[in-house]
Design a protein that fits this description.
285 residues, alpha/beta, Rossmann fold, five-stranded parallel beta sheet, four-stranded parallel beta sheet, 9 strands, elongated
């Protein structure tokens, strides 16, 4: 029997995750007190209904019962019941935004602010996060992207790296993106803006891509950039970084930066990284 325990931060997407697993034929139970995990697993094993895939949400909503989680995990192990833990997380800013938009109270913020509840919960979940088999950071992640991540893990058996990478094209004339971790200036590449047939197109158009990618300088630059990223990204993951913004800038953020950003997004996605592509200034005049 495949037994999955879903836990993590309130507001990080556990309810959406269990619905996805239910859609792919997992028998699902939400908000099960952790002390009942061993009994529930045994019940599923002995069921005449041929239950072979089970997913359970056990989180901080269990209140004082959540402290029973580790004893239950040890009991599952002693009974020979294999399990996997999926932990959903998100940045504090994103969690605050979600609670405000939904006008829901944080389960640990009855007498305090949302951020106080988040920080208390993060502290309580620190150990279980370390023991988790899969960690998905849903910061700025769409429901479609979360579903794709879950299908990769639980259907395709393909695990992506625990690092959300945003690749952002931008125009220097509109200012540097303040959220950038790494910034690369591609204004040294020939500018399609000065080619009449390309001026009004963007780096999403094939003719602009062929122009930008057609120079030896571009090939040399991309080879060196990709080599550097392949060196850096595992080190960021090792240090526990969960979100990385790579910004690619040209003059107007319409041609060169878009083309290079598209290439990097495609390359990193093929390497099983989680990638969000954002062309910040492409639609500006």
């Amino acid at each position: 029997m495949e037994f999955v325990i879903i836990t993590g931060m309130s507001g990080a997407g556990k309810s959406q995750a269990i619905r996805v697993l239910e859609d792919i034929n997992y028998y699902c139970m939400d908000n099960l007190p952790p002390a009942l995990l061993p009994n529930f697993a045994e019940l599923c094993q002995s069921s005449s209904m041929d239950v072979n895939k089970v997913a359970v949400v056990a989180d901080i909503r269990g209140g004082i019962f959540f402290k029973d989680l580790f004893n239950s995990l040890e009991e599952l192990k002693n009974k020979g019941i294999e399990y996997r833990i999926l932990f959903l997380d998100a940045s504090d800013d994103d969690l605050i935004k979600r609670f405000k938009e939904q006008r829901r109270p944080h389960p640990l913020a009855a007498n305090g602010t949302i951020i106080e509840g988040i920080l208390e919960e993060r502290n309580k979940l620190e150990e279980v996060k370390r023991k988790s088999d899969y960690i998905i950071d849903t910061t700025k992640m769409t429901l479609g992207r979360l579903k794709e991540e879950l299908l990769n893990i639980f259907v395709k058996g393909s695990i992506s790296y625990n690092l959300n990478i945003t690749i952002m094209s931008f125009g220097y004339k509109y200012g540097l993106p303040q959220e950038s971790d790494l910034v690369f200036d591609v204004r040294f590449l020939p500018n399609p803006f000065y080619i009449e047939d390309l001026k009004n197109n963007t780096g999403n158009d094939k003719n602009v891509q062929e122009y930008v990618m057609g120079f030896e300088t571009t090939s040399i630059f991309l080879k060196k950039l990709v080599d550097m990223l392949k060196f850096l990204l595992p080190l960021y993951i090792k240090e526990g970084k969960s979100n990385l913004v790579i910004s690619i800038g040209c003059t107007g953020g319409k041609h060169r930066s878009v083309t290079i950003s598209n290439y990097l997004a495609s390359m990193l996605t093929a390497e099983n990284y989680r990638v969000i592509l954002n062309h910040r200034d492409m639609g500006k005049q």
